[in-house]
């Protein structure tokens, strides 16, 4: 039971904790104030909602160190969370006590973030921060999450919502023109890669991680398909691999690193022999760098290919640009989407380039036309375009979402199913879009005619 003690000019209260020990709080002006506080804490103990005020003195940095140790997420998600923590959250909050984080201090910080970063990046940072504080509440370090609720209405000036869709995605004709520019820049593989992105809706990581053994191209017409099994990522931390029956360092290197020659790196990292027997179920660390990991949200799926794309992919496999991957880099290594990728390939494919003469051993560069209307598109825009094309053809929502690697929620997700006929209709519809894209539009015909007259 709580009791109060006189300490100089103020009062101190002692109250019982859930484990039977006593804690205290000082600085009360009157005995009654001290007793009221102590009895309130003991009431919370009895109701099993007690949060020790002193636990809130733990800093966010200390709590974050504990939090990351118990995260159970995919390698790519783990990397994303750590990046946002180290780059943005901890520099501001690391030495602040959890109990000192208020809604107002959080809002002030968020306002600064909005000035520095894009909306999507800020929302990603908020997501990590919310999980961090929600888990602190669950561990009873703080009584509630001080971050304002997303649904709670706040005071302040009304901000109009901009409903205009500004995301850039291509039409089938624009996708073809981008692919033609890609071929002029780097060759046939890149032409096929751009069309594969547009006509399958694969994410960029899934394109980079597309293995040769994921393609089934023997058959006619609509009997050929592609399996989404992996995505390729460049990791700055070690991924893990659970050994299955019969696997060796070499087979794991081929499966997860797309390079059996890296078996020695796996053996050295885990202190095993390259040709030694591996215990089933053992978790091995994989070297940093390019790694094949499960697709986002574990969105494994099989896609029937339109005939034209199956033919192009067959030619790509015959060229054998890489022993494992379908779309390697120019140097025959795993594809990396970095500044060089954007500066030397992606932006010129969309925005065009001027002609340049040969100099200092560099070959002549022919001029490329810009693809009007998509100059600012990012690679993910081809995935958006794929969804728009399928919606425009009126395919069932369940079949479209399954092809995109999404899961429908609620009753629709429970009772809707994709039939083979739906999948076949999608492949046939994509073939029609391709055939229509081969005919130039009126604007392009007019521009070509004007160019010929001026020439």
Structure, described:
The protein has 455 residues and is mainly alpha-helical. Among the domains are: 3-50, no CATH class; 60-138, Tyrosine recombinase, N-terminal domain (DNA polymerase, domain 1, Orthogonal Bundle), CATH 1.10.150; 172-227 and 301-356 and 364-437, hpI Integrase, Chain A. Helices cover 46% and strands 10% of the residues. It is built from 17 helices and 10 strands. It has helices at residues 31-46, 60-69, 75-93, 103-116, 119-138, 172-186, 188-200, 204-208, 249-256, 263-270, 307-319, 339-351, 381-392, 397-404, 410-415, 420-437, 442-454, and strands spanning 3-7, 10-16, 22-28, 215-216, 225-228, 231-235, 240-242, 283-285, 289-293, 301-304. The strands form 4 sheets. A 3-stranded antiparallel beta sheet has the order 1-2-3, with helices on one face. The chain has a 3-stranded antiparallel beta sheet with strand order 4-5-10. Strand 1 and strand 2 form a beta hairpin.
* Amount of beta strand: 5-15%
Low-confidence segments, ≥5 residues, pLDDT <50?
445-455
Shape: elongated
What CATH architecture label of the domain at 172-227 and 301-356 and 364-437 applies? Orthogonal Bundle
- Distance from first to last alpha carbon: 98 Å
Spatial arrangement of strands, main beta sheet: 1-2-3
Task: Report the average pLDDT across residues.
Answer: 86
> What assembly state would you assign to the polypeptide chains in this entry?
single chain
* Sheet having the most strands: 3 strands, antiparallel
How many strands in all? 10
Query: What letter string, H or E per element, gives the SSE order?
Result: EEEHHHHHHHHEEEEHHEEEHHHHHHH
- Helical fraction equals 40-55%
Rg over alpha carbons: 29 Å
Contiguous helical run count: 17
